[in-house]
Amino acid sequence: MSANPVQNFSRRNIPPLIKWPLIVVAVGYCVLMLILPLAVIFYEALAQGVLAYFKSFQDPAGQTAMLVTVVTTLVAVPLNMVFGIAAAWAIAKFDFPGKSLLITLIDLPFGISPIISGMLFVMLFGSQSWLGPWLMERGIQIIFAWPGILLTTIFVTFPYVARELIPLMQEQGSDEEQAAISLGANGWQTFWRITLPNIRWGLLYGVILCTARALGEFGAVAVVAANVRGKTNTITLHIENLYNDYKIVAAFAMASVLALAGMATLVIKSWIEHKLRPQHSPLELKTAEA
Question: Which residues contact 102 (CB under 8 A, 6 or more apart)?
Answer without folding.
Answer: 87, 90, 91
